[in-house]
Amino acid sequence: MLTNLTDERLVELSVSSDSEAFGEIVRRWERKIFALCFGMLGREDEARDAAQETFIAAYRNLSNFRGEAKVSSWLHRIAVNQCLTVKRRAKTRSEDFFDDESGEDEKIFVAPANRSPALTTEQIERLTLVRQAVGSFPSDLRQVVVMKEFEEMTFQEISDTLELPLSTVKSRLYTALRQLRMKLERLPMEIS
Amino acid sequence: MKDVNCKYSNGIVPYMYGESATSVATEFETHLLECQACTDEFAALSAARYEVYDWKKLEFDPLASPAIRIPFGEVAEVSWIGKLRAAFSTAWAMPVGALAGLAFLVVVLAVLAVSRQGGEILVQNAGNTPANGQSKGKMPDPAPTAIPTSKEQSVEAGEPGPNAPRPTVVRDITPRRSVRTQQTVGPRSTSPRTTTAQTPTPPRLNEFAEEKDDSLRLAQLFEDIDTSE
Questions:
Q1: What is the pLDDT of residues B91-130, one digit of tens each?
Q2: Using a CB-CB distance cutoff of 8 angstroms, which residues of chain B are in contact with residue A130?
Q3: Closest chain A residue to B57 measured between Cα atoms?
Q4: Interface contact B51-A19, CB threshold 8 A
Q5: Is the ipTM, as predicted for this complex, more than 0.95?
Q6: Across the interface, do A30 and B68 touch by the CB < 8 Å criterion?
Q7: Residue B150 clears pLDDT 70, i.e. is over it
Q8: B5 three-state secondary structure
Q9: Which of B1, B17, B85 faces A181 most closely, judged by CB atoms?
Q10: B39 contact partners, CB below 8 Å, separation of at least 6
Q11: Under the phi-then-psi rule, with left for phi > 0, alpha for psi from -120 to 50, and beta for the rest, what region is A40?
């Protein structure tokens, strides 16, 4: 029954202490928010924590949701803020999840626990490079890439969520992919 | 990768993700056959996209969704910022806040005006001290017994020495001060003007005998110069 309701209606029910309604919101959005956090942070454990914190923050601030924005935009904004906070904290601890590309290749790379053992060394290196490259993007570009590729949102959905013009979303993704291509062309040479 | 200056380059990304309109997609495909720059750009962006896709497929897709636990029973902690925000989110907060701000502004302006007036008196008193022949380094007497009358001062101001204060200062302040001190020191029944003028009318602070004030001669001189030119 709850599955037929809109996000906005579910929030209204949640405000009036309907925990089932908020549970439905969590079920609808947990995978996408987790994907966003994973793409933004690059580490599974931190992404899980960030997703958890996102929903807790959303629950605690239900009364502040005025319905001016869509629930998806609201959740994404909380998640992005959560990820940026995590990254900021990590920076103060001098720990970069993405192993920045400034030549510190000797840093320990934390591989995802569920990675398939069948991956070749070359694939693992390639994934590391991609993660580093995406991690070095400014957060506005990284956000668009992650929303498009990890959350599989359309341009229109990203535009609505981020409250940006459609053309800006397309141009950000274009810029991000160009930058990624250039970094990937350059990085293997630097490492070798 | 080179910069692509083709007008179709903006259509590469929507086409790549299959989000172009059918007619636009067909037009772009026709263009790709003719434009080498767009073809190269399309290939480069597709390769970059594939890298991200691969990253997601190999590392994210195998992951199980996180088990989100929401503490429903827990009372939400409201920070002081949250309380403040909640207080100002009510309908009455804006007009009350505006009124309070206005009242505060009025009070600040009043305090500033009073302090400025007091400061002027102090500065002008300090400037008058050497010209009036009072001792150096001595604080001006708050209730002097021999305060010169406006007539005496005008005579002194008419012959300014090299270090004498500006005549206009004397004209502005002295009558006001003499009136005040005489009011506080002297008997209440006697009017402050009784020493200089025998009229029983109450003192008016903005009333000056300008025609008797010789200190204006310098200003008049300048006026004469201006008109003569």
A1: 667 778 888 899 999 999 999 998 888 766 655 665 555 4
A2: 51-52, 54-55
A3: A150
A4: no
A5: no
A6: yes
A7: no
A8: coil
A9: B1
A10: B32
A11: alpha
Amino acid at B161: G
Neighbour tally for A62: CB within 10 Å: 18
pTM of the model: 0.56
**Cα dist. B203→A12, A190, B118, B176, B199 in Å?**
72, 92, 20, 9, 10
- The count of domains in chain A is 1
Asked if pLDDT for residue A33 goes beyond 90, the answer is: yes
pLDDT at A67 over 60: yes
Domain encompassing residue A91: 2-191
* Chain A interface includes B49 (CB < 8 A): yes
With an 8 Å Cβ cutoff, are A155 and B85 in contact? no
Mean pLDDT rounded to a whole number for chain B: 67
Report the CATH number that the domain containing residue A119 is assigned in CATH: 1.10.1740.10
Is A145 in Cβ contact with B52 (below 8 Å)?
A: yes
Q: Please give the full DSSP string across A15-47, using - where no structure is assigned.
A: HTT-HHHHHHHHHHHHHHHHHHHHHHH--HHHH
